[in-house]
Amino acid sequence: MTVDALTDVTGLRVGHATLRGDGRLTGTTVVLAPEGGAVAAVDVRGGGPGTKETDALDPRNLVQRAEAIVLTGGSAYGLDAASGVMAWLEERGRGVRVGPDPAHVVPVVPAACIFDLGRGGDFRARPDAAAGRAAVEEAAASAPGAPVREGCVGAGTGAVAGGLKGGVGSASTVLDSGITVAALVVANAAGEVLDPETGVLYGELFQGRVEYPEERVHEAARRRLAEAAAQNGLPPLNTTLAVVATDAELSKAQAQKLAGTAHDGIARAVRPVHLLHDGDTVFALATGARPLDASPLALNEILAAGADLVTRAIVRAVRAAEPVAGPGGVWPSYRELYGTR
User: Fold this and answer.
1) What is the DSSP string of 271-334?
2) Is 0.90 topped by the overall pTM?
3) Across 93-248, where does the E strand assignment appear?
4) What confidence category does residue 285 fall into, taking pLDDT thresholds of 50, 70 and 90?
5) In 3D, which of 284, 43, 48 has the Cα closest to residue 189?
6) Is the peptide bond before 272 cis (omega within 30 degrees of 0)?
7) Which secondary structure element, helix H or strand E, spans residue 258, and what is its range?
8) How far is 252 from 184, CA to CA, in rounded Å?
9) Does the structure show a pLDDT above 70 at 235?
10) Mean pLDDT in residue range 212-217
């Protein structure tokens, strides 16, 4: 049985730490790999990335596997959340062994952040090591294959997608080969996710499952979005993050190709994308539970699915988001404006 989420890749677990109230509107999401880690890679396309340990994932470098991936709010400050995840893993002896004692390990925990500073009202409210620990503990305590909570949770708590409230979304598929491919995103784009002429999400236009809203509904939504934008007056400092995963056996180079092509999924759902004030980053994880056919073209099906799933996950993130109105700003949700068509 599948749950249409990243956790359909056996061994992967997801946990969130959500920080709301008292000037906070931010959080951290952790993707926890099976013990021993998963082959990991990354592709960064945005002009303003905030990342940690991404150089280690270059196929030319020593590290092969990551124990966890951290997606966090708080801009560069929020990368502190990875320290809490590293500490939790070290306590369990999980990581690259660097000494004679089994406890001498260095956990590989790449991380990337979104810009959400001040969206709850307090610029200094941001995730820290405690948030990272809380998120990884929730991931570890979850059942195998558990559903992934979507919307305004974890790293998606303060996310904004264009003029709409953003959030976390996830999706998965099983290919004819039996290989599972899945994605999890934090939709926090400077570009728009909504076609201003029709009110349809760009990602749904690509998927071909389009139900156009009534003209009066769309006009009311446009007015509401314009009012919110005028009230907020904030710079478009954003970033979309994603983790694309598979149970196929991939090399680091193949995983990096998967991370790169998955950016196409962002480009289908966000316009424009990969701007100088975005930090768009995609991680790829491969658990290696299923062998990949020896054909050099066998990877293509996984690459295509990864991009498609990122698009679908962005749509789910925006549709699951709840509106926010507080001291840091006003962001309507898609459901608030257009209902659940």
Assistant:
1) BS-S-TT---EEEEEEEEEEPPPSSTTTTHHHHHHHHHHHHHHHHHHHHH---EEETTEEE--H
2) yes
3) 96-97, 105-106, 111-113, 160-161, 164-165, 167-174, 180-187, 241-248
4) very high
5) 48
6) yes
7) helix 252-269
8) 20
9) no
10) 93
What type of residue is 120? G
For the record, the structure tokens of 38 come out as: 């998963």
Task: Note the pLDDT tens digit of each residue in 147-175.
Answer: 999 999 999 999 999 989 999 999 999 99
Centre a 10 Å sphere on the Cβ of residue 74 and count the other Cβ atoms it contains: 28
CA 120 to chain centre: 20
Task: Describe the crossing of helices 252-269 and 300-320 by its angle, rounded to 10 degrees.
Answer: 40
d(C-alpha 72, C-alpha 134), whole Å: 12
What DSSP state is assigned to residue 103? T
Per-residue pLDDT at 95 exceeds 70: yes
Beta carbons within 10 angstroms of residue 226's beta carbon: 11
Residue 236 has pLDDT above 70, yes or no: no
Tokens of 23: 């000037």
What is the C-alpha to C-alpha distance for residues 266 and 317, in angstroms, rounded to an integer? 12
The pairs formed by 101-107 with CB atoms below 8 angstroms and a separation of 24 or more are: 107/67, 107/68
Q: What is the mean pLDDT of residues 260-267?
A: 98
At residue 196, what are phi and psi to the nearest 5 degrees? -65, -20
Mean residue pLDDT across the chain: 95
Q: Using CA of residue 252, residue 55, residue 113, residue 74, what is the dihedral sign?
A: positive
Is the pLDDT at 4 greater than 90? The verdict is yes
Report CA-CA distances (Å) from 283 to 41, 118, 125, 189.
6, 26, 26, 17
Give the closest residue to 203 by CA, choosing from 115, 152, 269: 269
How far, in Å, CA of 325 to CA of 52, rounded? Answer: 32
pLDDT digits (tens, 9 = 90+) for 172-189: 999 999 999 999 999 999
Q: Are 194 and 164 in contact (CB under 8 A)?
A: yes
Q: Is the pLDDT of residue 322 over 90?
A: yes
